[in-house]
Amino acid sequence: MHDAAERIRHEAAQWFAKSHGAALSPREAAARDAWLAADPLHRAEYAALQRVWQAAAAVPVERLRQLTASPESQPTVGTPALDAVPRRSRKWVAAALTLVLGVAVGTVLLRTPALSPGDATQASRPSAPADGDGTQAFATRAGERRTVVLADGTSVELSTRTSIRVHYGSERRDVTLVEGEAMFSVTHNPSRPFVVDAGNGKITVTGTRFDVRRVSPGVVVSVESGSVKVDGRPAASPGNAQSPTVLLTRGAGTTIRPDGSVMPAHPIDLTSSLAWREGKLVFQNVPLADVVAEVSRYRESPVTVADNATGQLRVSSVFSTDNTDGLLAALPEFLPVTVRSLPDGSVKISSK
């Protein structure tokens, strides 16, 4: 009975995270509704999370952090709205609050206004002086996001741990994505193509909005509007011919593999793939190893998994990039793992 109750609470948390993160597809919404209709206990657990969500709207973020930090030492007494929630086990309430905190902080970031022209000018200062040929460099630190506006009005949103180099010539606009991820909103100019070099390949446009992610092991390209041309750059050897050009339009994406070959275009979930721009990361049935790799990009010290079996555990979650500690604290509530902080500041996740 206990295992069944825990399973229902886990499923309720997964559906709640999906419903308050990326927009559900019609099929996913139907599956959620079918799950809710299948058992009154499903509806009760989901409703409990909904009440926590609504109650949290009136609670300062710092208070939520206190509540999730140590459920034994920080009971909900003194927070009337949360006291009204039926008391399950303390650890489950803590897990629910951690989920709410991740989404709530993301919602705050969603409401953050875009850069004003004055802010954009300030943000466009290079991270280092220009080279002799006029090349400029822009970069972000761990956990930082930054928007820069280039000379032609093109804006570039830099994710965490991202570095780009920009060189504008008379016939072409060149940007090198050294590492990380960036969203490009390119000013239209058919006579002066905009080219992003991502190491294993390049992306060419005249004016559009697209995202390029250069994080091991390949390069991922996603198009929000307009169209782009993606070319691979195979390793120089007799057996490696130039891969075909892949054309992408709105809602399509591709991956440039480490060997420089380009995968066929395929539909993508833009809401999930671009959630980083709003301070959120969305994972839907993703291996823990991939989650850990992404979380590490937002932290000064890395997070690692102890072995391959632990890394293959699946995670479905929505959380704030400003609260990776909250995600790590919640993992043992949903997965059979322990999370241990090491003296050097890194974090190690092991199976129980």
Could you please describe the fold and organization of this structure?
With 352 residues, this protein is of the alpha+beta class. It folds into 3 domains: 109 residues, no CATH class; 156 residues, Jelly Rolls, CATH 2.60.120.1440; 73 residues, Phage tail protein beta-alpha-beta fold (3-Layer(bab) Sandwich). It is built from 11 helices and 18 strands. A hairpin with a 5-residue loop joins strand 17 and strand 18. The radius of gyration is 22 Å and the shape is globular. The two termini are 22 Å apart. About 18% of the residues have low confidence.
Shape field? globular
Strand content: 25-35%
Estimate percent helicity. Answer: 25-40%
CATH topology of the largest domain: Jelly Rolls
CATH class category of the largest domain = Mainly Beta
Largest sheet: 13 strands, mixed
Which parts are unreliable, with pLDDT below 50 for 5 consecutive residues or more? 54-94, 100-123
Question: For the CA atoms, what is the radius of gyration?
Answer: 22 Å
Give the arrangement of secondary structure elements.
Layout: H1 2-19, H2 26-38, H3 40-56, H4 61-69, H5 80-83, H6 90-110, H7 117-123, E1 136-139, E2 146-149, E3 155-158, E4 163-168, E5 173-185, E6 194-197, E7 201-205, E8 209-215, E9 218-225, E10 227-232, E11 246-249, E12 252-256, E13 266-267, H8 270-273, E14 280-287, H9 288-296, E15 303-305, H10 308-311, E16 314-320, H11 324-334, E17 337-341, E18 347-351
Parallel strand pairs: 5-6, 15-18
Antiparallel strand pairs: 1-4, 2-3, 3-5, 4-5, 5-8, 6-7, 7-10, 8-9, 9-12, 10-11, 12-13, 14-16, 17-18
Helix pairs in contact: 1-3, 2-3, 3-6, 4-6, 6-11
